[in-house]
Amino acid sequence: MTWARFHASCRRHINQAGSRIDDTLAFYQSGASSELFGPPPDARALPSRVMAHLARMPDGAAREQALGTYAGIDFDALAPEPLGVKRVVVYLALLAVVCVLMVGIIGMFVMPQMASHFEGVGMDLGHGLLAWHGFIPLMLVVIILVCSVVVLQAVALDRLVQFRFGDGRRGLLWVLLPPSLRRRYGLLEGVICAPFPDLQDPAARRELQAMQGQGLRWSDELPGLARVQSMLLVKSADRQARWLLAIMGTVVAVCISYFVLGVYTPIFRMGSGL
Fold first, then answer.
1. pTM of the predicted model, to two decimals?
2. Quick check: helix, strand or coil at residue 174?
3. CA distance 103 to 247
4. Are 160 and 185 in contact (CB under 8 A)?
5. Measuring CA to CA, which of 112, 156, 172, 185 is 20 to 30 A from 81?
6. Closest CA to 199 of 47, 23, 78, 68
7. Nearest to residue 204, comparing CAs of 220, 224, 184?
8. Which residues, in sequence order, are CB contacts of 73 under 8 Å at separation 6+?
């Protein structure tokens, strides 16, 4: 329900004769009817930024036209929010914890105990296994870095599909997104924010200007354009989420292999020495 309160505020403004934009903005930012429309989104979210720009529009007629256009559309219904992205965030976080725990347990508990036992019985643990044990701290650092990047990118995907990137979009989460996803989000944002050039991505602004030059009006084309761009964004986000799962699956497989190697190799060496 990212846009529910925004659209309700626009319809409220249109349906109430003589409604002032200040009252509409106050309703949007308040907790009124939050059980029905949800609480107001964060000020950095796209619906909040669009509403703020509507309130600052100097041309009253253009503002009323934009409010009427927004009132007659439901951005939430254009493309379903990919619930898989939310699940991916939680799942990847759990996998990251499992990976770090497995490698950490081997490095801090299993291998030291094995080395102490072998030394006590006068058996050689083997240069290869000792070298592998020395490699564990570096591997742990690499796994933590990889898991952190993957989880942060999953969080960025979740923020992307909820329109929660603010102005400028220069943060770490935005940088972690693939360029194709950033471009897709910029196009969708540009379509939604057509009345406000300062909110638009330059590439989206050029596309919209070209469209208007062909005699197509934003108010008429908004439902179709927003639907197409929303579906493309959702598909791209789902595809990226699958890539993140594949990467984390590979990391988990490597961790399991190292776990098995660290636990069973000393046992096999012990058996061969009997």
1. 0.76
2. helix
3. 17
4. yes
5. 172
6. 47
7. 184
8. 7, 222, 223, 226
Phi and psi torsions of 72, nearest 5°: -95, 15
User: Residue 229 carries which side chain, given as an amino acid letter?
Assistant: Q
- The values of phi and psi at residue 224, to 5°, are -70, -45
Q: Which two tokens stand for residue 8?
A: 């309700």
Q: Quote the pLDDT of residue 97.
A: 80
What is the predicted pLDDT for the residue at 70?
92
Cα distance from N-terminal residue to C-terminal residue, the chain: 67
Q: How far apart are CA 143 and CA 253, in angstroms?
A: 12
Least-confidence region, from 50-59, 103-112, 157-166: 103-112
Q: Cβ(18)–Cβ(24) under 8 Å? A: no
- Measured between alpha carbons, how far is residue 31 from residues 23, 52, 152, 164, 228 in Å? 13, 17, 31, 19, 32
Number of H helices, E strands in the chain: 13, 0
Exposure pattern of 10-26 as b/e (b: 16+ CB <10 Å)? bebbbeeeeeebeebbe
- Residue of higher predicted confidence among 103 and 74: 74
Q: Which of 56, 60, 59, 8 is nearest to 29 (CA)?
A: 8
